Amino acid sequence: MNRLLIVGILMLSTAPLYAQDQQQNVDKLKVDTRNAVGVIGADKRKTRTYCQIIDLRERQQADQENNKNKNNKKKDKNKDKNKNKKRAEALSQKINQLQKQLEPEFSRIDNVLNHLDLQSPNGREIALIIQSLYESCPE
């Protein structure tokens, strides 16, 4: 699945940011985002870790969609359900371990994504800042 599509879906599913009432907060979000992206982007190891998180999240989302489709078509056997559950848990644990390596910058970016409104000019500007980090990841 295309990374930018995943980013877009994540951003569209987040709660809106009311920029008119929170201009000062929006400015702080921009600064925090630039700083976090700059710290991660300046360090090759951190960039690689960030890209691994994105890859694992994509895999996690694809697995969830596949499991949902399988469940809609037929009932999975208990073995398959347990296997899928173990795989999902392993992916979540790996993602959590990698995220800890990027703290506090990763939390800042994740927090911004949770408050982004792509309908606003400020939201689109912040999304472009984050997108620059995604573009540094190999396909």
3D structure, described in words:
The chain has 139 residues and is mostly helical. Helix content is 77%, strand content 0%. It is globular and about 50 Å long. Residues 17-21 have low confidence and may be disordered.
Strand % is under 5%
- Contiguous uncertain segments of 5+ residues: 17-21
Major β-sheet profile = none
- Order of secondary-structure elements: HHHHHH
| Class per helix and strand makeup | mainly alpha
Helix count from the secondary structure assignment: 6
Rg (C-alpha, Å): 17 Å
**What is the CA–CA distance across the termini?**
10 Å
Question: What is the share of helical residues?
Answer: over 70%
Coarse morphology: globular
Number of beta-strand segments: 0
Q: What is the average per-residue confidence, as pLDDT, rounded to a whole number?
A: 81
Keywords:
mainly alpha; globular
Short description:
With 139 residues, this protein is an all-alpha fold. The chain is built from six helices and no strands. The protein is globular, with a radius of gyration of 17 Å.
SSE layout:
Blueprint: H1 3-12, H2 23-42, H3 44-73, H4 78-101, H5 105-113, H6 121-134
